[in-house]
Amino acid sequence: MISMYNPVSNKILHYSANACLIPICSLYGAAVTTVEGIGSTKSRIHPVQERIAKSHGSQCGFCTPGMVMSVYTLLQNHAEPSSKQLYEALAGNLCRCTGYRPIVEGCKIFCKTKCNLGYWVHIITHPLYVLQICRKLFTAEEFQPQEATQKLTFPPELILMATDQHKRTLVFHGERMTWISPLTLKELLELKSKFPKAPLVVGNTIVGPNMKFKDACHPIIISPSRIFDLSAVIFSKTGLTLGAACSLSFVKAILVQAVSDLPLETTQIFLALLKQLKHLGGPQIRNIASLGGNVLSRHPSSDLNPLLAAGRCVLNVASLCGTRQILLNEDFLDASENAVLLPDEVLLSVYIPYSKKGEFVSAFRQAERRENALSLVNAGMRVAFKPDSAVIADLSIFYGGIASTTVCAKKSCQLLIGRSWNKNTLEEACQIVSEELLDLDTTPEGTSEYKRTLITSFIFKFYLQTLKQLNQMNTFILFVFYVMKQDINPDQFSYDPVGCPLMHLAGIKHATGEALYCDDIHPTEKELSLVLVTSSRAHAEIVSIDTSQALSWPGVVDVITADDVPGTNEFCYITEPESLFATEKVTCVGQIVCAVVADSAARAKRAAAKVKITYKALEPIVLTIEDAIKHTSFFSPERKLEQGNVQEGFDMADHILEGEVHIGGQEHFYMETQSMLVIPKGEDKEMDIYVSAQHPTFTQELVASVLNIPSNRIMCHVKRVGGGFGGKITKTAILAAVTAVAANKTGHAVRCILDRADDMLITGGRHPFLGRYKVGFMNDGRIVALCVKYYSNAGCTADESIANALLRMDNAYKIPNLLCQGCVCKTNLPSNTAFRGFGFPQSALVTETVITDVAIKTGLPQEEVRERNMYKAFDETHYKQEIDPGNMIRCWNECMQKSCFHKRKLEAEEFNKHNYWRKKGIAIIPLKYSVGFQPMYLNQVGFENTIVFSFLIAVYLDICYSKCLRAASMPGDICSLIASRELRIPTSYIYISETSTATVPNTRPTAASIGTDINGMAVKDACETLMKRLKPVMNKNPEGTWKDWVRVWCLLPKCTVSYKTHMDWEKGEGRPYEYFVFGAACSEVEVDCLTGDHKNIRTDIVMDVGCSINPAIDIGQIEGAFVQGLGLYTMEVLKYSPEGILKAYGPNQYKIPALCDIPEQFYVSLLSSSQNTSAIYSSKAIGEPALFLGSSVFFAIKDAIAAAREERGSPRIFTLNSPATPEHIRMACMDQFTEMVSKNKPDSGNPCATPSYCYSSGYFEKDV
């Protein structure tokens, strides 16, 4: 939080901001408050920190400080905020773990209107006493109130500085630049005259990213933020003048006040601007970004410029030669010579004229995500009518996002002046505007058919809004959450925490910023930083590597290549060998070639850009699944499973359908990027590796192999992981090995922290899939035969994702005659890797698509077809494993009942009858998820040899605490709950330490959702062993305490815990999984058929978690997985250029679900009375299964599209590829506008991919 005193208003201003965008020099005179400054466990935590922690709003914890500070800043400005203000304050934050619900729920307590808080919450236990454990999720009464002593005290010396009459121009000199902050407008104009190329920086939202990502260098930067003339606000008789340095948040506040005070007819443009400002960036961006910077950037996707241009706004500029005005019109936006600022000119203010009677202004935008996302297409439109008529007197239409600049449909507007505002004019407007804008210079991403459709769709929306003279503000819908509880055994001892919703053990430390992550470890003496140099070619031979310029760069110590590897440069994790450093050729963009080591990360990064690699291009470049099929580029073996006789099934079928569906890839987007610190110990080649990893043992083994030293010299430490989802198993080990080579060669500690762009470029993600199917079925919807072939885009190396896809493809359905095959495509993309569900979310989506097509073809309700094909009783899967679907049927029936499915379906159908351009859809999806690993040995059993799983418990004499050393990424909460029950002591006696291969060797990765099953049993076994050892002591002193009994040191041997799993792929049968998890989800959406935008109205989930050890964790996992699945199926898109270069390399281009994307009503229920004898305390794995339930939103969208297509006379059976982005939704809702664009479009191959880039899964639309 940044706080500044304004001497003009005599007020202290508080605002949140992104630290990565704030130049240190701009903070002169400001008070900066970080999460550590508002409360800590050493003193006293702040109520915001307490509420987020105790409401279970923290899982990995990496995003928690940002959430805390956003709410804290809100409370500094509004002691009792409204729910809308709370929502807006959190809107700029991202979380990949929780699904946002618990964060919002905990912070609602601060709001004026108290809302339903749900059922589950926990009270912290005192560290020395056993307290009763609360059975609710959380109770508002237990939270400490806000007190005056915890209010921020603004430093009085800063007030004196702000009111000092002798203030002077500030000048700061750095290594590469000088920062100048003048006090007066005259000084500013003199500086601009002296340094005409120097940029003016207020919010740093344009210059900052260019310096970071494009290595732009500005020797002089001028900051005019202290000049009050540039922040002036003037209301005149004709309009509003806003200073160029006004922040967008300040502009928004001024416009809200103006709308409230001025006559409605004069504020048309203000209302339209407010609509755009609501979605322009997040609050942290709007708090610092300036109006002038936004206008002068002339960004092709600017949300404000089209509207300001349509509203005839004027720019007031000045130089030492005087002042002048520039009309903000198409000439300015196109940077015409007579309408641009001269190098020595400064933008003073923007004049916005009031709207007049008979004048209507509207704004439109469509983005990949509703908020905090750049527009794909936006528009500003204004129409003025002749007095007392519907005849157009003036018309302005501007678009952003469709060309290299904001464009004006000037010719079309002139042709339409004098026409009446009616249907004929609308049709003509759509046609002539579309034709006028057809031949424009396109944006770098191209102008797709979808964008051209939005051009006409926005005109139609403007026509409707103006025709009806709509002037209604959108009502704010408060999120409603509901979590059903799990029954607790009434005979359970009060000290036994198992089954109770306990707060994350590190939750408070997450919220106070005291939780240490890898990059928080203090630098060691002479520590070095490492930056990777990666391939810029997808398929090429390395001719030469020239490191001379990099080595001569200041601060550079060395450049590490394959020649510096003392051991082997190749390794093998699954089947195919991989290289640590590329040597002779590269097979993807982002492959590691070498690494630069320097005394700082900034210097290493600059030097890395100086490494010159010469390539010789190789052919072909294979990027998509279609490319791989064309060039027969596959990994071996091809997998196959078969049951029954498929041909006989097709012969008896009443109908046969064929089709295909693409499922796009997905980036892990963990909040903490890949991070590692390697410290040579200087003796016997020992090394300490501090790493954020899910599989520390593989990291240890790989580093030992690369350095050619025994594994017992490598100590791998994992304190905590800031999100992993499968992405920190193999990839982290590779990066740690590269860093270890550098540390070994230099003899110094080396730290490597990837920035987001490099992380996304190098590490790969979820596999894109193509599923081609042929299904035979009866008139009653029973499927009698199914043949499916899956293609997985593995990237440049192989893994076992296709095996999981085939084994789990049946989801909840018994298909008597089935043939499924899997091919792994070898492409020139970074190797894709494990990701939550690992093959199942892709193959199961194909299966559900088949079910949907069958339902549409037979005319039966989709839920009826699903029920008809479900496993009904004790049965066998297609790989001959026994299954009892009882709990699956229970989940389905409970979800039907709790969601009021049939009632809401009828309501949706009624809504659709009365709304042509908006459609509702509803879908209910079952879930059967098999728990375990592929390959089998990771389940600890392979080839009939048991692999031991280790867990260490040490008992100390001082205050009698037990210390547990756990598996990586396994929640310490679960360890402590199990140990608490088995040792019969409160959790406050137990301390969970880091994972370390020095104390617990031979660990297995915490993945595939089996961390609790395997490690939990190891904890239980270790505790039982300890209790057996203590039993003689306890028998001798039955009245004693834990402290009395614990007088010996205990070092436990390894315990054997394993799944007895096996799979024979030649026979196509086995028992590859230990048990099944079941669930069901019902989702309802509303689709805007004109733009493709959709709103998630409600989701109900019923989940079989067995007997939950900690319901708070399980519910958090369900919600987080669902929202991650929602991202996979509806919004997350990885784009690559034809050269194989990733185009979505950060949060600006790649959109994960935000708070605005979660369902407005979100209900989660745990199935009661569920048992599971295969896992600890009858619990079940829950981390991965619920991700697939996000597909219920996908199929609800498809249901809404089908309703629109049926009304328009289009075929109801159609292909909807995943993710169901606004583009795919809009183009599937076929209407006169899509037809118009189709007729006018230039010839192109793929209607759903823009000319200059391809999707990694090769999307296209097709009617079966």
Low-confidence runs (pLDDT<50, min 5 residues)? 115-135, 470-478, 940-950, 956-970, 1048-1057, 1243-1264
Q: End-to-end distance, in Å?
A: 55 Å
- Strand order, biggest sheet? 20-24-18-31-28-29-30-43
The dominant shape is globular
Q: Tell me the β content.
A: 15-25%
| Largest β sheet strand count, sense and barrel closure | 8 strands, mixed
- Structural class from helices and strands? alpha+beta
Mean pLDDT: 86
Percent helix range = 25-40%
Number of strands: 50
User: What is the number of helical segments per DSSP (H or I, 4+ residues)?
Assistant: 36
What is the CA-atom radius of gyration, in angstroms? 31 Å
Keywords: 2Fe-2S, FAD, Flavoprotein, Iron, Iron-sulfur, Metal-binding, Molybdenum, Oxidoreductase
Protein name: FAD-binding PCMH-type domain-containing protein
Subunit structure: Homodimer.
Binding site for Mo-molybdopterin: 694, 725, 836, 1008
Indicate the topology:
Blueprint (H helix, E strand, L loop, with lengths): L1 E5 L4 E5 L15 E2 L14 H8 L9 H14 L5 H8 L10 H7 L12 E2 L34 H8 L6 E4 L4 E4 L3 H10 L12 H7 L6 E3 L10 E3 L3 E5 L4 H14 L6 H12 L3 H4 L4 H7 L7 H6 L3 E6 L2 E6 L2 H4 L12 E8 L5 E9 L7 E11 L6 E9 L6 E2 L1 H7 L6 H14 L12 H19 L12 E4 L23 H6 L15 E7 L5 E7 L1 H4 L4 E5 L9 E3 L4 E3 L5 E2 L5 E7 L2 H8 L3 E6 L7 H7 L2 E10 L2 H7 L2 E9 L11 E6 L6 E5 L4 H12 L6 E5 L11 H17 L3 E4 L2 H8 L5 E9 L5 E13 L5 H8 L9 E9 L13 H19 L3 H8 L5 E2 L5 E2 L2 H13 L2 H14 L3 E14 L9 E2 L2 E2 L5 E4 L6 E4 L6 H12 L6 E4 L1 E2 L14 H26 L5 H4 L16 E3 L4 E3 L3 E14 L5 E10 L7 H20 ...
Parallel strand pairs: 6-7, 17-49, 18-31, 29-30, 33-34, 41-42, 47-49
Antiparallel strand pairs: 1-2, 1-3, 5-6, 8-9, 9-12, 10-11, 10-12, 13-14, 14-15, 15-16, 18-24, 19-23, 19-25, 20-24, 21-22, 26-34, 27-32, 28-29, 28-31, 30-43, 32-33, 35-36, 37-46, 38-39, 40-41, 44-45, 46-47, 48-50
Helix pairs in contact: 1-4, 2-3, 8-9, 14-15, 15-16, 15-36, 16-35, 16-36, 22-23, 25-26, 26-27, 30-31
